[in-house]
Amino acid sequence: MSETLLFQTHLLLGYVAWLLCFGVYLWPRLKAMDQVDAQRAIATLHSFRFFGLVFILPGVVGPDLPAGFAAPAAYGDLATSVLALVALLVVRRRRLFWLFVAAFNVVGVVDLVMNYAHAIQAGVPAAPGALGAAYAIPVIYVPLLMITHVGALGLMLRAIGRRGGAALHA
Question: Phi then psi for 116, rounded to 5 degrees?
Answer without folding.
Answer: -60, -45
